[in-house]
Amino acid sequence: MSHLVMRRPDLRDLAPVPPMPAGYVLRPYAGEADLAGLAETLAAAFAEAWPEERVRRSLTEAADVDAVFVVAVEGRPVATASSNHRPGQFPGAGVVHWVGTHPAHRGRGLGSALVARVLQHFVALGDGHAALETDDERLPAIRSYLRHGFLPVYDPNGEDHRDRWSAVVRAAFGG
Protein backbone atom coordinates (compact mmCIF):
# COMPACT_ATOMS: atom_id res chain seq x y z
CA MET A 1 0.00 0.00 0.00
CA SER A 2 1.27 3.48 -0.82
CA HIS A 3 2.03 6.06 1.84
CA LEU A 4 -0.36 8.78 2.85
CA VAL A 5 0.88 12.24 1.90
CA MET A 6 0.58 15.47 3.86
CA ARG A 7 1.60 19.01 2.88
CA ARG A 8 2.13 22.21 4.76
CA PRO A 9 1.20 24.83 2.15
CA ASP A 10 3.51 27.53 3.47
CA LEU A 11 6.27 27.95 6.01
CA ARG A 12 5.31 31.35 7.39
CA ASP A 13 4.53 31.83 11.07
CA LEU A 14 6.21 28.66 12.27
CA ALA A 15 6.01 27.90 15.95
CA PRO A 16 9.40 27.95 17.66
CA VAL A 17 11.11 24.71 18.56
CA PRO A 18 9.78 23.91 22.03
CA PRO A 19 12.21 23.52 24.92
CA MET A 20 13.48 20.02 25.54
CA PRO A 21 12.63 18.14 28.73
CA ALA A 22 15.43 18.05 31.31
CA GLY A 23 18.31 15.86 30.15
CA TYR A 24 17.35 15.92 26.44
CA VAL A 25 19.29 17.85 23.79
CA LEU A 26 18.11 18.49 20.21
CA ARG A 27 21.09 18.81 17.87
CA PRO A 28 22.40 17.88 14.43
CA TYR A 29 23.58 14.33 13.82
CA ALA A 30 27.20 14.06 15.02
CA GLY A 31 28.52 11.46 12.58
CA GLU A 32 29.90 8.06 13.48
CA ALA A 33 29.57 8.75 17.21
CA ASP A 34 25.76 8.77 16.76
CA LEU A 35 25.48 5.92 14.27
CA ALA A 36 24.81 3.01 16.65
CA GLY A 37 22.31 4.99 18.72
CA LEU A 38 20.54 6.20 15.60
CA ALA A 39 20.29 2.64 14.26
CA GLU A 40 18.90 1.42 17.59
CA THR A 41 16.39 4.28 17.76
CA LEU A 42 15.09 3.71 14.23
CA ALA A 43 14.81 -0.05 14.74
CA ALA A 44 12.81 0.43 17.94
CA ALA A 45 10.69 3.29 16.57
CA PHE A 46 9.65 1.47 13.41
CA ALA A 47 9.83 -2.14 14.67
CA GLU A 48 11.99 -3.17 11.72
CA ALA A 49 15.64 -3.85 11.04
CA TRP A 50 17.83 -0.74 10.83
CA PRO A 51 21.42 -1.98 10.68
CA GLU A 52 24.07 0.72 10.54
CA GLU A 53 24.50 0.20 6.78
CA ARG A 54 20.83 1.03 6.21
CA VAL A 55 21.18 4.18 8.34
CA ARG A 56 24.10 5.25 6.16
CA ARG A 57 22.36 4.36 2.89
CA SER A 58 18.94 5.83 3.74
CA LEU A 59 19.92 8.79 5.92
CA THR A 60 23.39 9.89 6.77
CA GLU A 61 25.00 9.30 3.36
CA ALA A 62 21.91 9.52 1.14
CA ALA A 63 22.32 12.08 -1.64
CA ASP A 64 18.82 13.53 -1.16
CA VAL A 65 19.07 13.93 2.64
CA ASP A 66 20.44 17.33 3.55
CA ALA A 67 20.08 17.26 7.34
CA VAL A 68 19.62 14.73 10.12
CA PHE A 69 18.66 15.92 13.58
CA VAL A 70 18.60 13.90 16.78
CA VAL A 71 17.40 14.29 20.32
CA ALA A 72 20.00 12.76 22.61
CA VAL A 73 20.15 11.76 26.26
CA GLU A 74 23.64 11.58 27.72
CA GLY A 75 24.95 11.90 24.17
CA ARG A 76 22.99 8.93 22.75
CA PRO A 77 20.24 9.52 20.14
CA VAL A 78 16.73 8.55 21.26
CA ALA A 79 14.73 10.38 18.57
CA THR A 80 15.42 11.59 15.06
CA ALA A 81 14.05 13.41 12.03
CA SER A 82 15.68 14.27 8.76
CA SER A 83 15.00 16.44 5.76
CA ASN A 84 15.29 15.74 2.11
CA HIS A 85 14.27 17.15 -1.23
CA ARG A 86 12.55 15.25 -4.02
CA PRO A 87 11.84 17.85 -6.71
CA GLY A 88 10.31 15.31 -9.06
CA GLN A 89 7.73 14.30 -6.46
CA PHE A 90 7.42 17.44 -4.31
CA PRO A 91 8.60 20.48 -6.33
CA GLY A 92 9.67 23.43 -4.19
CA ALA A 93 9.08 21.55 -0.95
CA GLY A 94 11.28 20.31 1.80
CA VAL A 95 10.30 16.79 2.83
CA VAL A 96 10.11 15.78 6.49
CA HIS A 97 11.74 12.36 6.51
CA TRP A 98 12.05 9.44 8.98
CA VAL A 99 10.64 10.96 12.17
CA GLY A 100 11.01 8.41 14.94
CA THR A 101 11.31 8.21 18.70
CA HIS A 102 12.51 5.24 20.72
CA PRO A 103 9.43 3.84 22.52
CA ALA A 104 11.08 4.36 25.93
CA HIS A 105 11.15 8.11 25.24
CA ARG A 106 7.74 8.68 23.62
CA GLY A 107 5.18 11.06 25.03
CA ARG A 108 7.68 13.82 25.79
CA GLY A 109 7.17 15.92 22.64
CA LEU A 110 10.51 14.91 21.10
CA GLY A 111 9.08 14.11 17.67
CA SER A 112 7.13 17.35 17.61
CA ALA A 113 10.25 19.34 18.50
CA LEU A 114 12.17 17.59 15.73
CA VAL A 115 9.47 18.38 13.17
CA ALA A 116 9.58 22.04 14.25
CA ARG A 117 13.37 22.01 13.83
CA VAL A 118 13.16 20.44 10.36
CA LEU A 119 10.59 23.06 9.29
CA GLN A 120 12.94 25.83 10.44
CA HIS A 121 15.68 24.15 8.40
CA PHE A 122 13.46 24.36 5.31
CA VAL A 123 12.93 28.09 5.88
CA ALA A 124 16.70 28.59 6.11
CA LEU A 125 17.05 26.77 2.77
CA GLY A 126 14.40 28.96 1.14
CA ASP A 127 11.78 26.24 0.68
CA GLY A 128 8.25 27.55 0.18
CA HIS A 129 6.33 24.65 1.65
CA ALA A 130 6.79 21.20 3.17
CA ALA A 131 5.56 17.68 2.56
CA LEU A 132 5.82 14.28 4.19
CA GLU A 133 4.75 10.69 3.75
CA THR A 134 3.33 8.60 6.56
CA ASP A 135 1.43 5.40 7.20
CA ASP A 136 -2.21 4.98 8.16
CA GLU A 137 -1.44 3.43 11.56
CA ARG A 138 0.91 6.21 12.75
CA LEU A 139 -1.92 8.07 14.48
CA PRO A 140 0.13 9.97 17.11
CA ALA A 141 2.46 11.18 14.37
CA ILE A 142 -0.47 12.25 12.17
CA ARG A 143 -2.02 14.22 15.05
CA SER A 144 1.35 15.93 15.55
CA TYR A 145 1.69 16.72 11.85
CA LEU A 146 -1.79 18.27 11.83
CA ARG A 147 -0.80 20.47 14.82
CA HIS A 148 2.22 21.58 12.77
CA GLY A 149 -0.06 22.77 9.95
CA PHE A 150 0.21 19.78 7.63
CA LEU A 151 -2.93 18.90 5.69
CA PRO A 152 -3.95 15.61 4.06
CA VAL A 153 -3.39 15.22 0.34
CA TYR A 154 -6.36 13.31 -1.00
CA ASP A 155 -5.07 12.48 -4.46
CA PRO A 156 -1.29 11.96 -4.48
CA ASN A 157 0.03 10.69 -7.80
CA GLY A 158 -3.52 10.27 -9.08
CA GLU A 159 -4.50 7.83 -6.31
CA ASP A 160 -7.72 8.46 -4.37
CA HIS A 161 -6.92 8.48 -0.65
CA ARG A 162 -10.19 10.03 0.61
CA ASP A 163 -11.46 6.79 2.16
CA ARG A 164 -8.12 6.13 3.82
CA TRP A 165 -7.96 9.65 5.25
CA SER A 166 -11.55 9.38 6.51
CA ALA A 167 -10.66 6.16 8.33
CA VAL A 168 -7.49 7.73 9.77
CA VAL A 169 -9.37 10.78 11.07
CA ARG A 170 -12.04 8.56 12.67
CA ALA A 171 -9.35 6.43 14.32
CA ALA A 172 -7.26 9.42 15.44
CA PHE A 173 -10.08 11.57 16.79
CA GLY A 174 -12.97 9.17 17.40
CA GLY A 175 -16.24 9.06 15.54
Automatic annotation (TrEMBL):
Ranges for domain N-acetyltransferase: 24-175
GO molecular function, one term: acyltransferase activity, transferring groups other than amino-acyl groups
This protein's record includes keyword Nucleus: no
Entry keywords, A to Z: Acyltransferase, Transferase
Matching CDD domains: NAT_SF (cd04301)
Pfam families membership: Acetyltransf_1 (PF00583)
Superkingdom to which the source organism belongs: Bacteria
Protein name stated in the entry: N-acetyltransferase domain-containing protein
Species the sequence originates in: uncultured Thermomicrobiales bacterium
